[in-house]
Design brief:
Layout lengths: L9 H36 L2 H6 L3 H19 L5 H19 L2 H4 L2 H24 L7 H22 L2 H31 L7 H30 L5
Helix pairs in contact: 1-4, 1-8, 1-9, 3-4, 4-9, 6-8, 6-9, 7-8, 8-9
Family: Belongs to the BI1 family.
InterPro entries: Bax_inhibitor_1-related (IPR006214)
Keywords: Membrane, Transmembrane, Transmembrane helix
Length: 235
């Protein structure tokens, strides 16, 4: 998808490919976050958030979101890029509907403040993942085990309703998702360097969507973990 000149080295060509691919990934991620934010704000401001949280619709939306993520991950190699794009946008909309309920628990100013804190932390770790010479692939299994751990602990705490456990989950979650941000950005950078830009526009688009979804989930989960610490309660 790009041409190299006689003066361009292989390393420079790889860097150019990685930069172009990363730009597509971050553009899609930003679009997803923008859609989610707008939908969440509109849903909360119109009162629909109260309807969602007080009905089975909330759990239906959560299950639909999980289904879309699993479907995208499992079928990305077989579906069309346009389908992957539509699923990503649909997921962003559904997540906006479910996240609208945070406006019922926290003040708008504290939500905005936490968003900017999250953006700062995410940005710092993304830059680290891009520029570090250290191979972060060894972090993957450790961070994945930690992620499974906090998911299990969160499910258990639904029944225990322990505030102490909830705080511990949030603390661990902040460390896990900041680590995952650096790990995932480096992984996506390597995908760009290893030739996806030469595999055709269809593969580029699908690769960018999956990369965007990965970073989108890192950002959203980090935001929710930090909201427990920085969110101002409406009570």
């Amino acid at each position: 998808m790009y041409e190299t000149t006689g003066q361009m080295t292989i390393a420079q060509a790889r860097q150019q490919a990685s930069t172009l691919f990363l730009a597509k990934v971050f553009n899609w991620m930003a679009a997803g976050l923008g859609i989610t934010g707008l939908v969440a704000y509109f849903t909360a401001s119109t009162g629909l958030a109260m309807t969602i949280i007080g009905s089975p619709l909330f759990f239906i939306l959560v299950l639909a979101e999980l289904g879309m993520v699993f479907y995208l991950s499992a079928r990305i190699g077989k579906i069309q890029a346009s389908t992957a794009s539509s699923l990503f946008i649909g997921y962003s909309v559904l997540n906006g509907l479910t996240l609208s309920v945070i406006f019922l628990a926290y003040t708008s100013s504290s939500i905005a403040g936490t968003f900017f804190i999250t953006a700062g932390m995410f940005g710092a770790m993304a830059v680290y993942g891009l520029v570090t010479k250290r191979d972060l692939s060894g972090w993957g299994s450790f961070l994945f085990m930690g992620l499974i751990g906090i998911i299990i602990a969160s499910i258990v705490n639904i029944f225990l309703k322990s505030s102490g456990m909830a705080w511990m989950i949030s603390i661990l979650g902040v460390f896990i998702f900041t680590g995952l941000t650096a790990y995932d950005v480096q992984k996506i950078k390597r995908i760009g360097e290893e030739g996806i830009m030469s595999q055709g526009m269809e593969m580029i688009k699908k690769g960018a969507i999956m990369g965007a979804l990965t970073l989108y989930l890192d950002f959203i989960n980090l935001f929710l973990m930090l909201l427990r610490f920085f969110g101002g309660s409406r009570d």
